[in-house]
Write a structure and sequence with these properties.
Low-confidence stretches of chain A: 1-10, 100-122
CATH topology of the largest domain in chain B: A middle domain of Talin 1
CATH architecture of the largest domain in chain A: Orthogonal Bundle
Oligomer: heterodimer
Helix content of chain A: 55-70%
Number of domains of chain B: 2
Distance between the termini of chain B: 78 Å
CATH topology of the largest domain in chain A: Rna Polymerase Sigma Factor, Chain: A
Largest interface: A-B, 53 and 49 residues
Strand content of chain A: under 5%
Number of domains of chain A: 2
CATH class of the largest domain in chain B: Mainly Alpha
Distance between the termini of chain A: 48 Å
Helix content of chain B: 55-70%
Mean pLDDT of chain B: 71
Chain lengths: ~200, ~220
């Protein structure tokens, strides 16, 4: 596709693109894709921690969206509709492929994962600064159950009641998983920072 | 409030704290640091939203699927020719052959782009390769094999001819754009991947056209 055509596609307003996509306009589909591809793909990538799987899921999410675009009446924001659909596609795929999801209700806190219980001990803090690259790596290393709730809440901005409905757990469980995920991330980040400080 | 009590209620804490929690945070550096760290993680995490770009391959695949599902609509040309029953069978063997030729050709172009950019413009193409496709503008025009494919499709499934014609034009345009990008910047890996992907797309169109149009 030429740059000129790409820019033209990007200039279409979202509302206009939606209406034209309903009529089968190729440029409108591409414009909608360009508007939302980064967020959808990022979500898929972080959920699966696998580039190929993330691309397949992104493709599937957009195809589902475009197949149903005729039913979009504008009651909610298009982005809300799209991202909810993307989340559903990812969750469905994770369930279908039986990826190593830790069942939420069965996730037990192990000794290793438990937050340190000795306040005031040698507990170096992150001092309010978090390295983004390291955070990305740390998220990828989280157990899948923790990772999913953390991504939906802290990255995607869903509320606990929405997450509970999407994932099929209680609101309390969602809160608990999120807290454990943050605590785990803090531990990973602190360890990483300490290791970096030791290395010459 | 003790540290243990504070950490027990921590998962339930929203943006606001109760008086007793605030009092504990003021008096306990460890819990205060913990809360600040968790908030910092949360703040930084929000910045990860939409931070990654998918490869161009994703849109190419979506577009091909949309066209084949009829969601991208083209003006339909109706060809009311009587199908020739054995024509498709005679051409069936062409599907893997054409796909192979297209992929091999794509790989050759890719290798020329990565390995010997300085020679790519001087050396003649190797014998046996469809040289017409090496010309920058060749992709705009339907080649003989494209026309043969469309003929086969129109004989077997006339209603799909317009769709496949549009697909071929589209994928030829991708190839042309990608070739131009690779020619203008032979070391651009993204452009080379794009070109390789464009050839794969064309192979896919051939396979689908022949699979669907044959009995």
């Amino acid at each position: 596709m030429t740059d000129a055509k790409k820019q033209q596609g990007d200039r279409l307003s979202e509302a206009e693109a939606i209406e034209r996509a309903k009529q089968g306009d190729a440029e409108a589909f591409e414009s909608l894709y360009n508007l939302h591809k980064r967020r959808v793909y990022s979500l898929c990538l972080r959920m699966t921690a696998n580039t190929a799987a993330a691309e397949d899921l992104t493709q599937e999410a957009f195809l589902q969206l475009f197949r149903k675009i005729g039913t979009f009446r504008g009651e909610s924001a298009f982005s809300t509709w799209l991202h909810r659909m993307a989340v559903n596609v990812v969750l469905m795929q994770l369930r279908k492929k039986s990826l190593p999801l830790v069942p939420l209700e069965e996730t037990l806190e192990t000794e290793e994962e438990a937050p340190r219980k000795e306040p005031g001990a040698d507990d170096p803090r992150l001092a309010g600064s978090v390295d983004r690259m390291q955070l990305q790596r740390s998220i990828a290393s989280l157990p899948p159950g923790y990772r999913m709730i953390f991504l939906l809440h802290d990255v995607e901005g869903y509320e606990h009641n929405e997450i509970a409905a999407m994932v099929g757990c209680s609101i309390g469980n969602s809160k608990s998983q999120l807290h454990k995920a943050r605590m785990k991330l803090r531990e990973i980040l602190k360890t990483s920072r300490a290791e970096k400080a030791i290395k010459p | 409030m003790t540290c243990e009590e504070f950490r027990r209620v921590l998962p339930e804490l929203g943006s606001g704290h109760r008086i007793e929690q605030d009092a504990h945070l003021k008096s306990c550096g460890a819990c205060s640091d913990l809360l600040e760290d968790l908030n910092a993680i949360s703040r930084e995490a929000r910045l990860l939203q939409g931070s990654e770009d998918p490869s161009p391959w994703v849109w190419n695949s979506i577009e091909v699927a949309l066209r084949h599902e009829g969601l991208i609509r083209q003006p339909q040309l109706q060809h009311l020719q009587t199908p020739v029953p054995m024509q498709g069978w005679r051409l069936r063997w062409l599907a893997p052959l054409v796909a192979t030729v297209v992929i091999v050709f794509g790989v050759l172009i890719y290798q020329r782009g990565t390995g010997q950019p300085q020679l790519a413009e001087r050396q003649p193409p190797p014998a046996g390769v469809v040289t017409a496709n090496l010309q920058p503008k060749s992709a705009e025009v339907m080649g003989g094999e494209d026309l043969q494919l469309l003929k086969t499709v129109s004989e077997r499934t006339p209603a799909m001819r317009a769709t496949y014609e549009a697909d071929l034009r589209s994928v030829n345009a991708y190839i042309r754009d990608a070739e131009q990008s690779v020619n203008s910047n032979p070391n651009d890996e993204v452009a080379q991947q794009y070109l390789s992907s464009a050839y794969e797309q064309k192979a896919m169109v051939y396979e689908m056209a022949l699979d669907r149009s044959l009995p």
